[in-house]
UniProtKB/TrEMBL annotation:
<dbReference type="GO" id="GO:0015035">
    <property type="term" value="F:protein-disulfide reductase activity"/>
</dbReference>
<feature type="domain" description="Thioredoxin">
    <location>
        <begin position="1"/>
        <end position="129"/>
    </location>
</feature>
<dbReference type="Pfam" id="PF00085">
    <property type="entry name" value="Thioredoxin"/>
</dbReference>
<dbReference type="InterPro" id="IPR036249">
    <property type="entry name" value="Thioredoxin-like_sf"/>
</dbReference>
<dbReference type="GO" id="GO:0045454">
    <property type="term" value="P:cell redox homeostasis"/>
</dbReference>
<protein>
    <submittedName>
        <fullName>Thioredoxin family protein</fullName>
    </submittedName>
</protein>
<keyword id="KW-0813">Transport</keyword>
<keyword id="KW-0676">Redox-active center</keyword>
<dbReference type="InterPro" id="IPR017937">
    <property type="entry name" value="Thioredoxin_CS"/>
</dbReference>
<dbReference type="InterPro" id="IPR013766">
    <property type="entry name" value="Thioredoxin_domain"/>
</dbReference>
<dbReference type="GO" id="GO:0005829">
    <property type="term" value="C:cytosol"/>
</dbReference>
<keyword id="KW-0249">Electron transport</keyword>
<keyword id="KW-1015">Disulfide bond</keyword>
Length: 276
């Protein structure tokens, strides 16, 4: 009987331990781990006196359901009373407040106040397993915020994650970040071709988010001469994707026939295949 009780107690304690997130408490340590693992940081702003925070602990952070997603992020819990500067930096006026960030501290997604656990689990399910080197690029480019080459690289990395890795609401947030950086490219570049490509990518991003009609209107308004070979190829690729996704098969076929760039054809086929 004693052995049975001991075994039961061991199993109970083990399940409890394995059902908890092991939080980082230091922002820089979490950054280093996020960089090493190439993942987002899950940041939970809380306080010991916060009732809704304790409710989140009991209903989400300390449950078995969280385990299946915990390998996708580096968890950091920030006590707003101990780390007031950090709370001030992120304008924390109420808690709990949960954010998903890149390793350089850029917020991708956030939710304020107590929210049902299923909402978070759905978001965590939509997260990419890896950021494809984005964290390293952002941290190394901290002094290149006005460099169009750097901005384009970051914009394309956010776009690639949104296009191929993330899902649902998280996908939209990565694409929104991509569009933000493409706008910064336009602001900082004196090269006409670079600016036009950045603009085209913003409209393509609208299509990735499902706004096909809006994207088509914008794309068709951009007039390019025949000398802009690569830009015309990308424009045809983006328009073809819009037509196919919107169900206009005839227009899709006509646009696809204009694409000679094999990389764009492969990318288009992959996008179309994923939507079937």
């Amino acid at each position: 009987m004693k052995k049975t009780f001991t075994l039961f107690l061991f199993i109970l304690v083990s399940n409890s331990l394995f059902s908890q997130i092991i939080w980082e408490r230091d922002f820089k340590m979490a950054q280093a781990k996020a960089l090493e693992k190439d993942q987002v940081m899950l940041v939970d702003f809380w306080a010991v006196w916060c009732g809704p925070c304790k409710k989140m602990d009991a209903q989400l952070w300390n449950t078995p359901e969280i385990n299946q997603y915990s390998s996708k992020f580096v968890p950091l819990q920030v006590d707003i009373d101990r780390f007031k500067d950090l709370a001030r930096k992120y304008n924390i006026t109420s808690i709990p407040r949960v954010m998903l960030m890149t390793a350089d501290g850029e917020v991708i997604w956030e939710k304020n106040g107590y929210v049902l656990p299923d909402t978070y689990l759905e978001i965590f399910d939509q997260l990419p397993e890896s950021l494809g080197g984005l964290n390293k690029t952002l941290l190394e480019g901290a002094e290149k915020q006005n460099d169009p080459v750097f901005l384009t690289e970051v914009a394309l990395m956010f776009q690639n994650i949104g296009e191929n890795e993330a899902k649902g609401e998280v996908k939209r947030e990565f694409i929104n970040k991509s569009s933000y950086y493409f706008k910064e490219v336009q602001k900082n570049s004196s090269d006409e071709n670079v600016s036009i490509k950045a603009e085209l990518n913003q409209y393509f991003n609208e299509a990735i988010k499902g706004n096909y009609s809006k994207a088509l209107k914008k794309l068709n308004k951009i007039e390019l001469s025949n000398d802009h070979v690569e830009l015309n190829q990308f424009k045809s690729f983006a328009i073809a994707y819009c037509y196919k996704s919107d169900g206009d098969i005839d227009s899709y076929a006509k646009q696809r026939a204009l694409i000679e760039n094999q990389d764009y054809l492969k990318r288009l086929d992959q996008l179309v295949k994923e939507e079937i």
